[in-house]
Amino acid sequence: MRVGVLVSGTGSILEALLAGDLPVAVVVADRPCRGLEVAAAAGVDSELLDRARFGGFGAGFDRQAYTEALVTVLRAHGVGLVAMAGFGTVLAAPVHDAFPGRVLNTHPALLPAFPGWHAVEEALAAGVAVTGCTVHIATLEMDAGPVLAQEEVPVRPGDTAESLHERIKAVERVLYPRTVRAYLAELEERDEPR
Ligand code: GAR
Q1: Which of 29, 34, 114, 177 could connect to 119 by a Cys-Cys bridge, CB 3.0–4.6 Å?
Q2: What's the CATH number for 103-194?
Q3: How high is the pLDDT of residue 109?
Q4: 1-100 — its CATH code?
Q5: Residue whose CA is closest, atom 5 of ligand 1?
Q6: Are 1-100 and 103-194 the same fold in CATH?
Q7: Which atom of ligand 1 is nearest the CA belonging to 133?
Q8: For ligand 1, is residue 177 a contact (CB within 6 Å)?
Q9: Where is pLDDT greater, at 45 or 188?
Q10: Is the peptide bond between 112 and the residue preceding it cis, with omega within 30 degrees of 0?
Q11: Which ligand 1 atom lies nearest to the CA of residue 7?
Q12: DSSP-assigned states of every residue in 54-74
């Protein structure tokens, strides 16, 4: 079963998925980002499905049309499982209709704690001693949905959001490929090829 990876940033989680020998068929970015360079360097098909073409980042963003276009790209590449890897666009229903229970996400906090875009900063501001990361099945609600795996990361004295996020990402780079691989195997065992 082929995997489609969605990126918006550095693409270090994508690098880990590729290094983990996952069958990545296509990488899709919602904005120009290093993730696209990572895909090119690995010889993996990639596509910039730029939000700028769908109204950008303001109130005019056409989330429905963007999601429909994304589903078209993923289907064209024969994708059966979608893995968000630092993807900055909340998707609408069509992706969940097209890939029911087959959209995964990794998040830099122990969900349900600290959902959203500022999870690391918020964990630090809350003064928690331990945070971590969560791999889960994505649903329409942001950073919610059944948890597949979690791992704790202790907060160290003097941590900044950057230092803490980097230690969390080091864990994600192991946990996400492992969890995606196990989930793929589970889907294939269920004999639901797509
Ligand atoms: C990861 O920490 C991932 O959990 C986070 O973006 C980072 C991507 O890193 N995703 C979210 O915060 C989604 N809510 P990368 O660009 O180096 O791969």
Answers
A1: 114
A2: 3.40.50.170
A3: 98
A4: 3.40.50.170
A5: 86
A6: yes
A7: 4
A8: no
A9: 45
A10: yes
A11: 16
A12: GTTTSTT--HHHHHHHHHHHH
d(CA 113, CA 19) in angstroms, rounded, equals: 29
β-strand pairing of 24-29 with 2-7:
parallel
In this structure, are residues 165 and 108 in contact, taking their beta carbons and an 8 Å threshold? yes
pLDDT at 97 over 80: yes
Contact between 78 and 25 (Cβ < 8 Å): yes
Q: Give the pair of three-digit tokens for residue 100.
A: 């029911």
**Positions marked active-site:** 107
Average pLDDT, the chain: 96
The residue written with tokens 């202790």 in the block is 154
Amino acid at 33: C
Does 191 have pLDDT greater than 80? no
Cβ–ligand 1 distance for 11 under 6 Å, the answer yes
Which tens digits make up the pLDDT trace of 14-46?
999 999 989 999 999 999 999 999 999 999 999
Distance from the Cα of residue 42 to its chain's centroid: 18
Domain segments of the chain as ranges: 1-100, 103-194
